[in-house]
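Would you mind giving me a polypeptide sequence along with per-residue structure tokens?
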Amino acid sequence: MKHLNPKIIGFALLIFLSILLVYLRFKPYVDQPNSSFFDLYGDGFKNYATTLYHIKFDSTYMQYEGMNYPYGEHVLFTDCQPILANSLKFISQNVVDVSDYTVAIVNLTMLFSFVLCSIFLYLIFNRLKLPIWYNILVSLGLTFLAPQLYRVIGHYGLAHSFVVPAILYFLMRFEEKRSWTLSAVTAVFIILTAQLHFYFFAISAVLITAYFFFYWLRNFSGQLTGKLALHYGIQVLTPLIFLQLWSHWGDTVRDRPTLPMGFLDFRAFAEGIFTGSKIPFWQWIDRTIVDIRDLNMENEAFVGTVSTIFALALIVRWCIRRFKKPFLPYVESDFLRNLFPAVFVILLFSLGLPFTLPGMSGLLDHMGPFRQFRGLGRFAWAFYFGWNIIVWYSLYQLAANAKKIWIKGLILVPALSLLAYESFHFAKASYFSPWKDERLIKSRFETSENYWFKNIDIDRYQAVLPIPYYHIGSENFEFGPLGDQLRFSLIPGWHFGIPNLGVFLSRNSYSQTLEHLPLALYPYRPVDLLSRLPNQKPLLVVIDRVQRGNFAAKNDFSYLMRQGKLLYADDLVELYELPVDATIKAAELWHNDVLNGWNYAQENFTLRDGFMCRIALQH
């Protein structure tokens, strides 16, 4: 009997261990995937809601109709992971209906992406000829330390951490052989993953561009220039053209924001790259030795303490040798030679350079469509994976060249132990006990005592009006949902496909935004948008009762709700029926109160030293 190939055994062991670790870390989400939610607020719940609505209720594959009523939105701007949502929509309509398992599928595909991440890292280290045992340990460690692991708390499309390692693997294979088939596979991969999240196109395009540039510099020739240009056209320009056509196909919006606010607010910071706020060791340093700036997940892509120490050691070594030796040791691989300058340049870009330099902010005006990708810190993911591949390859080579076994152990054992320690704590920090809400499980909701729609004919209503009203998506105006209001207001759409006048999307039309915003303001005039709705069916108002005390800070909705009819109420929520002309009457009431207040002031107050004083109190 022939012996099994050790590489096959190692590959199978990696898959088994990665699945096991995912299960141990996220056990409740695997055991009850359809009723366990990573987030019930903000972006996280929005990701679930837009995906489910698109699969179950949207009439086309391109348009999402669940929010921004009556206009809807192109699916690329909804965070519904169009490649996943549209695949499930097709299966549900043509094979078997899986729409009721949307939450489970979103959860499990996100978790399985970590297994894919470890696989691509394993393939890279395998081609670098590292031992199987070492390869498995490092691949698993880097997977569970990857910055995207933390995205499970709210950005499900971005949580697919396998994308960057896959692009690096394709570049490694391209370095070995410039294959047209490989370029075509890379292009298809980018097109598909860009529809998990459009940032994956930007990150992949920047990484391939930087790598090709340094590849070209090292191997410059006229013949190579032409071939590289053709390969680049296939790998980057073809996906760009396809995605541009896809994003504009059937999209009537022509005034999306081109200058979203906060372009430099979400850049990476050096502390977020080389120190770890989620790791107890670095938290101790922050408390006792040196204050480390507080950052958020957009500013961080911690490479690990081993990689930080290795970077410092290389800088010291390079300075001692007076810059006469190559910065990197053990760079026999052409792939690593080109990879290091590529990811280093991307790191500088993710830090906001050159835009943060004095007098250079004006360059932002010449960024063109890349101005849309304001999350610069996300580009540091390329550095995380690229730099760690270099570091862990070099560490093993350093240990392999040691003549004594105890020196090898002194290099590798602490390094691998530290990687395991940090990946454990980072994975722990990214995990929260599942959120639960029985109202999102239709069969349970319908049999509960607090079923909202028991005595409501849901077909009477054309859309939901959330109160307090929320609108996020124009990237310049922001009226965020308060408390549970986002989830409560999306439940009628979740179960019955009723669209929502609220907006929690991205890159929304300016003109559509300005039409909706009066719903969030004082009722100084009727809301013109409501007079242009496609029919006169009433609106279903969903009110988060806990937020009633916050109403006055945003809008006195009492004028509007005087026109409504109470349908249901419990301790948390109220549902009203509201005619579409209610804002006309609300504006009249508000104007009358303002006029009465003015008349009262004229009769009972006088102006004295710039202040209105009661006439009776002047003396």
